[in-house]
Amino acid sequence: MLAISTRGLGKSFGNHRVVDGLDLNVEAGSVFGFLGPNGAGKSTTMRMMLGLIKPDTGSVRIMNRCLATDRSAALRTVGSVIEAPSLYDHLSGHANLDLTRRLLALPAKEIERVLDLVDLGHSASRRVREYSLGMKQRLAIARALLGSPTVLVLDEPLNGLDPQGIFDIRNLIRRLAHQEGRAVVVSSHLLTEVEQTADHVGLLLKGRLVLQGSTETLLRQQAAYRVLVDDPSAGKRVAANLKLIASEMDDHSLILRADTNSTEDLKAGELARALVVAGLEIHEFAPARMSLEHLYQDAVRQQERIPA
Ligand SMILES: Nc1ncnc2c1ncn2[C@@H]1O[C@H](COP(=O)(O)OP(=O)(O)OP(=O)(O)O)[C@@H](O)[C@H]1O
């Protein structure tokens, strides 16, 4: 089931087409990583998903309700944290949540439930000004969870966090999707983090969706090999002759792969033969995993070939 879908979603500011014909599909009970560099249009898209700004073209459906024609029913199923969490620093975590709980006319026990979910029960009576950024982020997510929305939209929730903060938020996001059955949309430009968190990804470049699908499937689509040879520079030349993309790792091994836009598959035998024929000594040769970073670089290269 689709928790959020957009069809032909578009938005311009003046002459600048910031979001251009997006068909996004966010599955229920899964994490959707919304990727793209700064200025790609992620926040604008999320704002349209939440009804904060009006699209020029296209539509948004949330839990099968049309945002334009059934706005309050559609938005009732969504919680969000957009940009920096706006919390009252001089109040406790509990008091911050209580303000929103009262506005939503929810029972008092709802606060304990969301505090438990984000693992902040022990710090609930402390003032928010004493919280780390990661704790503030978790508190903001707790607030978004008041009322048990089935969909959560989080804009850059990992920004500015230290490794422990990232780890906590990543686990929380996965738990909310996989154990609690919510759809969580997470925007980010941190490819490695999203690769470890998101079940599905969508990559936005200059307002256009250039890649969308299951993270696992996208990464498995194309063969890649990790090769350690005695002369990495010569290895790179062999790769270039075979029209392969070569990335040199810190240990001087090479990750060799076909461009994801190429229809040619990379054959291990052909590659090994070419390296040997070039007089290289192969110390290691093993299948390698593609990364979102690779897919991202390919998508950027592809887009540069297409005139805007
Ligand atoms: N209200 C606005 N008026 C004019 N231009 C805007 C407005 N909001 C966003 N933009 C422009 O639209 C483009 C996309 O911005 P957006 O914030 O959606 O990108 P983003 O992918 O979320 O990037 P970032 O991570 O930097 O926020 C940018 O060029 C931005 O300057």
UniProtKB/TrEMBL annotation:
Coiled-coil spans in chain: none
Key words of the record: ATP-binding, Nucleotide-binding, Transport
Matches recorded under InterPro entries: AAA+_ATPase, ABC_transporter-like_ATP-bd, ABC_transporter-like_CS, P-loop_NTPase
Signal peptide: none
One term of GO molecular function: ATP binding
PROSITE patterns named among the record's database cross-references: ABC_TRANSPORTER_1 (PS00211), ABC_TRANSPORTER_2 (PS50893)
Annotated ABC transporter domain residues: 4-231
Superkingdom of the source species: Bacteria
Family of the protein in this entry: Belongs to the ABC transporter superfamily.
Protein name from the UniProt record: ABC-2 type transport system ATP-binding protein
Organism encoding this protein: Sphingomonas yabuuchiae
The organism's taxonomic lineage, starting at the top: Bacteria, Pseudomonadati, Pseudomonadota, Alphaproteobacteria, Sphingomonadales
